[in-house]
């Protein structure tokens, strides 16, 4: 029964990620075709700002709730504790956007009359996204991956339908498109809430003040470490869009994100693996089965890397045709750009296990690696664009690769040492 359920979850995860990738590619094609690559660049810039807020202020309840339920099985107080932390994160984001949102957008981008309205929409979008976290963590522990994936599919359907409606009615303003993202992520949140209620048969399984205080204390301690690790990670992902917008403008962001989309099938392959094997890795760790844990990770990683290399070669061959189909012509060194993006994809796919596993079992390590990685990912591209920005995006991508390589090497080295027998004493 467990074997069948695991494979059903894995299949549904691949389908959900694939549907999400297909949806985002269709939206990209439509926007690039009807509104231009610069408009798409602006949209990606706004969404990157939201992702940075989520990264900076999230308590990581998607992972930590799953971890704490190992000690408080079938206890609704763990979910409630996670929701409280998510709401606290949301309150901080609302305050920041209210006081500084418009100023931040103006600093990185030219002034527009809608900056204040857009900043408010981004705050709401980020809040709804954060509030999904605890429900996802709760459902993951009980292997209800199917509910999570159905929520993702439903969210993407709503988003694509609303954006399609706006495009057909010639209402492709930034505010309208971002509003579509807000509505869709809210629908995804509602789906997850009802999914949890259905799983619980609309009954609270177990709750008491004592267990609530105990679970909240444990969750807070682990989430606090995740918060610092997440804070240190602020420069790791999406900050490159901010730097590109500042130095090269909207069109450069749009081209960069369009090139990234051709490699999105690699994420389709690797993203579900960590979620579906998280509980198995937790069990191996707590049962001191380090050898099995290592064999599992290395076996899957070898397969992932072989497929990733093959796909990157195919992408390099067809990149010009891919860009021409969207009305984007005469991009210099497009094949070389895909090569450097492919190197990043190789690094990312080889560490599919790191995010979920390291924060649950070795939570000190991401704090160190994320801080170093953020410093490198901000300073190296910044100075590259500042002094050599006239050379275009190729210099930028070389600097990104140079800055990220150390951050991927460190987890492998430290993880190998931990597998020799050390255990985390955080919980």
- Counting structural domains, the number is 1
Beta-strand content bin: under 5%
Gyration radius (Cα, Å) is 21 Å
What is the mean predicted local confidence, pLDDT? 80
Largest sheet: none
- Gap between N and C termini, in Å? 31 Å
Label the structural class.
mainly alpha
Order of helices and strands: HHHHHHHHHHHHHHHHH
The low-confidence runs, each spanning 5 or more residues with pLDDT under 50, are 422-427
Structure summary, number of beta strands: 0
Query: What is the molecular shape?
Result: globular
- Relative helix content: over 70%
Keywords: Cell membrane, Membrane, Transmembrane, Transmembrane helix
Protein name: Polysaccharide biosynthesis protein
Membrane topology: Multi-pass membrane protein
Transmembrane segments: 12-31, 37-57, 78-101, 121-139, 146-168, 174-200, 303-323, 335-355, 367-388, 394-415
Descriptive labels:
disordered C terminus; 427 residues; globular; 82% helix; mainly alpha
Describe this structure in words.
The chain has 427 residues and is mostly helical. The protein has one domain (2-418). It has 17 helices and no strands. Helix 10 (239-247) runs parallel beside helix 16. The protein is globular. The model is unreliable at 422-427 (pLDDT under 50).
Element layout with pairings:
Elements: H1 2-34, H2 37-57, H3 61-68, H4 76-108, H5 115-131, H6 133-141, H7 145-168, H8 174-199, H9 209-232, H10 239-247, H11 250-262, H12 264-286, H13 290-324, H14 334-350, H15 354-361, H16 364-388, H17 393-418
InterPro entries: Poly_Biosynth_Transport
Organism: Aquirufa novilacunae
Transmembrane segments: 12-31, 37-57, 78-101, 121-139, 146-168, 174-200, 303-323, 335-355, 367-388, 394-415
